[in-house]
Amino acid sequence: MPSPADRYAKQVRFAPIGEPGQRALRESSVLVVGCGALGSVIAETLVRSGVGRVRVVDRDFLDLSNLQRQTLYDEVDLASGLPKAVLAGRKLKRINSTVDVEAQVADVTHQNIAELAAGADAIVDGLDNFETRLLLNDYSVSTGVPWVYGGCIGAEGQVMAVLPGETACLTGLVPEPPAPGEAPTCDTAGVIGPAVNVVASLQAAEALKLLSGNRDAVNRQLISIDLWRNRVRMLDVAKLHADGTCPTCHAREFPWLSGERGSQAAVLCGRNAVQLRSALTRKVDLGALAESLRGVGEVTVNPFLLRLTLPDHELTLFQDGRCIVSGTEDEARARSLVAQHLGA
């Protein structure tokens, strides 16, 4: 009968980790924000590595187009209609039952980031938008909790570890979120699975360094890859921190964390959909609402969400009052549909 130690035997033989590093991993806690493409690889790698507690947070549900690159999920998951976080949590627990896996169906905002990150020794970015990344950056610098940024589009990607007080932060690299249409998206440029896997693996490696007690091994540079053009670059971003002009690192300004910055609606990358963060402000009985919507369109409901399918749109309402409106990228149109059919 194999002993529990056999699970990590090859990892322990890697000298920079060894037995001390494996113990440190077992005693550590990490927050993975987003369990889509990047988050799938990150969360699975950290769970397989024996990190003691892995909390995954995601705001979305599974879509057919996700299966091309979101490796935690399959067609059975798609048919279930459940949120990604729930599906990810179940899969991760089957992968390693010795890890405390906690799954949260939530949109990360300035109101809940402190609660979601409570006890975390590191935060890893599995996101698809810069507003939430800048929120994570504010939280990281204000509290001293390190985080690992990663982004991927087409065949290109970037990875950067943020060590508060030691390295540049994301504000130095991206002072403002790109305006709509200003930067390529999944819709305009697409994305290939191998690029996602490489970026996420680089992020997971940086997280393992942090969580195993190997902070000195963390890369202080920005890694940029282009798998199609066969390019890997290391960019020195130290001057972004050293020049003393960063409003986050040096002036200690945290507008995303305070709620001064941040919108109530977001266009979801590659989805032709809009998320309304506060579509409904009242507490909703999903079962009762489902009954009232019979005849309006096709209605499906589970303990986590209600989905109303109309001829040209789909409305997915979550327990926390958020609604994802599919079939449009127009916020006004999304709000109108919610008001018309859900009575907001």
What this model shows, in words?
Pfam families: ThiF. This is Molybdopterin-synthase adenylyltransferase. Residues 8-242 form the THIF-type NAD/FAD binding fold domain. With 344 residues, the chain is α/β, with parallel strands linked by helices. It folds into two domains: 4-258, Rossmann fold (3-Layer(aba) Sandwich); 265-342, TATA-Binding Protein, CATH 3.30.310. The protein is 34% helix and 21% strand. The chain has 14 helices and 14 strands. The strands form two sheets. The protein has an eight-stranded mixed sheet with strand order 3-2-1-4-5-6-7-8, with helices on both faces. Strands 9-10-14-13-12-11 form a six-stranded antiparallel sheet, covered by helices on one side. Strand 1, helix 3 (37-49) and strand 2 form a beta-alpha-beta unit. The longest helix is centred in the middle third of the chain and has 19 residues, at 193-211. It is globular and about 65 Å long. The N and C termini lie far apart (58 Å).
